[in-house]
Design brief:
Adapter protein MecA; MecA_C_sf; Alpha-Beta Plaits; Neg-reg_MecA; protein-macromolecule adaptor activity; four-stranded antiparallel β-sheet; 9 strands
Length: 214
């Protein structure tokens, strides 16, 4: 992890995949978990703010920018209201921008490390009925994946994001085959689901279904 002082009010931190691994964190851990994101940012601040110049400030802001092999984190203090309003929306923990950034990093990491088509890491499956979702949730092979359940045109769709650090080549092939026992491949894109579908369960669709119906 590299750190530099841009000025007296801003620190720039470069966080690479290896830095996350050293802390026992994956991009998937941060995906959608706003408390985990905020805790992670402040843990980085603890490491780089050796002289406690920033921790003593009442207003600390974080700005995240994408990087091919990780993230760039800008930590700022004593910003004016005008400066804060100009900050990138990805610093807002209540938006989905950071989630989208993390998804991009998962896919980029997959492409870089395994040289596998990116589409294999984000799959959309169509369910014939919700009963198939209940049956699928009775198994545990998707417990480490990000699973969203959508309703579009009165049909159920399961969007799955596979973390390459968890699902290697063989594991991904095996899990996909098991999923297809209860679903079918779909030509519906993730963009179509995001824009036109109704999100019923976010991230933990398998666990949520299991807790209510199994």
């Amino acid at each position: 992890m590299e750190m530099e002082h841009i000025n007296e009010n801003t620190i720039r931190v470069i966080i690479e995949n290896e830095d996350l691994a050293e802390r026992g964190i994956t991009f998937l851990d941060l995906l959608g978990n706003h408390r985990e994101i905020e805790s992670f940012f402040y843990s980085i601040l603890e490491e780089v703010d050796i002289e406690d110049e920033f921790k003593s400030s009442e207003a600390v802001t974080f700005q995240v920018l994408p990087k091919n092999d990780g993230l760039e984190l800008f930590i700022s203090k004593n910003l004016s209201p005008e400066d804060i309003s100009k900050m990138n929306d990805s610093t807002e923990f209540e938006t989905n921008d950071f989630d989208q950034l993390i998804r991009q990093q998962i896919l980029a990491n997959s492409e870089m490390v395994e040289e596998e088509p990116v589409d294999n890491r984000v799959r959309v499956f169509q369910l014939n009925s919700f009963e198939d979702m209940i049956e699928l949730a009775s198994y545990h092979f998707l417990d480490e994946a990000w699973c969203d359940l959508y309703l579009l045109n009165e049909k159920y769709y399961l969007q799955v994001v596979f973390d390459p650090e968890v699902y290697g080549d063989y594991a991904l092939a095996d899990v996909t085959a098991e999923i297809l026992e209860y679903t079918q491949d779909s030509a519906v894109s993730t963009e179509m689901l995001d824009e036109y579908g109704k999100l019923l369960m976010r991230r933990d669709a398998i666990e949520i279904t299991r807790s209510y119906f199994n």
